[in-house]
From TrEMBL:
Residue intervals of the ABC transporter domain: 10-240
Pfam families in UniProt: ABC_tran (PF00005), TOBE_2 (PF08402)
GO molecular function: ABC-type transporter activity; ATP binding; ATP hydrolysis activity
GO cellular component, one term: ATP-binding cassette (ABC) transporter complex
Protein name per its UniProtKB record: ABC transporter domain-containing protein
Length: 360
């Protein structure tokens, strides 16, 4: 690290964690800024909780280091790291009131009674818990319980907050409401939140940057829009957003990619790392398909509409190609929407698809 450059607020530096034969995390590095909301997104077993446990100090890395505000905290116990936590597995104590639940982290760090009163008032205010302080968790709604759990993570004035799937047990509507609230708290408090989820909608709606983890490795790290619009690996293309994959072949002489199964060809720039046979994987986000009624002049993939699913402002068309492959195309709802049995031409803007050298 150069002495002139200020240290990042949080630095995760080449961290690995091995459990026997299992490589839960492998050589993972991320720098996090003081004002950032970072989502850690990955499928089940990818190493997300392991990473949070290492940051929290609940576990130690096999190699690598963790720095907070320039200080090496790799060997510090959890209570000396100044980190707040909201983990799904230990939310609230059922036999203690909201007030007692909130006071717990402050008692752990042996704060004075005056300080505890002051911090409880702060939490009550910022989380709108007025009138709920003497209730027990089972006398609260799911959203209220969640706010108390957040309060418990924040009450000791942490330098950062770690959240591990805190909304997983809430229904969709409440989850969306809490997503907005949690993001608002983060911006208001000005400390980083590191938010683990396997739910890409949650990651994309809340965070500034998204770190995609796959098999213990950092697969991609970037601003949420960039992660969605410009996936840099096939895994990210598959995992973020809903997309359809096609086997294609790139022909160097013509500069065309042909989707052989559907006899569809489009022009494309050369693809990095492609083998001599030119095989490529083409990913198209389901909402980026273009559909038009089939005519003699159509050049897209001929399909028929097998089903129409209404999803709020969008329509999901289940299409069937000539060789009986099913493709889902999502389109904005319009008055003249397509009906079952309609013949359509399916295509896409070559600039809107993602092409990678074929895997394996
Ligand atoms: N204490 C442990 N001992 C052995 N293996 C472990 C231990 N903790 C985690 N693992 C393994 O490490 C890998 C990563 O686990 P981790 O809990 O970090 O995944 P995750 O991304 O949080 O998954 P989920 O979305 O299901 O919570 C998994 O293969 C898991 O089985
Ligand atoms: Mg987990």
């Amino acid at each position: 690290m150069s002495p002139t450059k200020t240290a990042p607020y949080i630095r995760i530096d080449a961290v690995s964690r091995q459990y026997g034969q299992v490589r839960a995390l492998h050589d993972l590095s991320i720098d996090i800024d003081k004002h950032e909301f970072i989502a850690i997104l990955g499928p089940s077993g990818s190493g997300k909780s392991t990473l949070l446990r290492l940051i929290a100090g609940l576990d130690r890395p096999s190699s690598g280091k963790i720095f907070i505000k320039g200080e090496d905290v790799t060997n510090l116990p959890p209570h000396k790291r100044g980190i707040g936590m909201v983990f799904q597995e230990f939310l609230l104590f059922p036999h203690r009131t909201v007030r007692e639940n909130l006071a717990f982290p402050l008692r752990m760090t042996r704060e004075t009674p005056e300080k505890i009163v002051e911090r409880l008032e702060w939490a009550e205010g910022i989380l709108s818990l007025g009138g709920l302080m003497d209730r027990y968790p089972n006398q609260l709604s799911g959203g209220q319980q969640q706010r108390v759990a957040l309060g418990r993570g924040l009450v000791a004035n942490p330098t950062l907050l770690l959240l591990d799937e805190p909304l997983a047990n809430l229904d969709r509507e409440l989850r969306q409401e809490m997503e907005v609230e949690i993001r608002r708290y983060q911006k208001q408090l000005g400390i980083p939140f590191i938010y683990v989820t396997h739910n890409q909608e949650e990651a994309l709606s809340m965070s500034d940057r998204v770190a995609v983890i796959h098999k213990g490795r950092l697969e991609a790290l970037g601003e949420r829009q960039a992660i969605y619009d410009h996936p840099t690996t096939p895994f990210v293309a598959r995992f973020v957003g809903r997309s359809t994959r096609f086997d294609g072949v790139f022909d160097r002489s013509s500069g065309n990619i042909t989707i052989k199964a559907h006899d569809y060809t489009f022009a494309h720039q050369p693809v990095d790392g492609m083998g001599a046979d030119g095989r490529v994987d083409v990913f198209v986000k389901n909402e980026r398909f273009e559909l038009s009624p089939w005519t003699e002049k159509s050049t897209g993939i001929p399909c028929s509409v097998a089903d129409v699913v209404l999803r709020g402002p969008f329509v999901e068309y289940i299409l069937e190609t000539a060789n009986k492959t099913r493709i889902i195309a999502v389109q904005p709802k319009r008055k003249d929407h397509l009906s079952i049995g309609d013949r359509v031409s399916l295509s896409w803007d070559p600039a809107q698809c993602h092409v990678f050298a074929a895997e394996g």
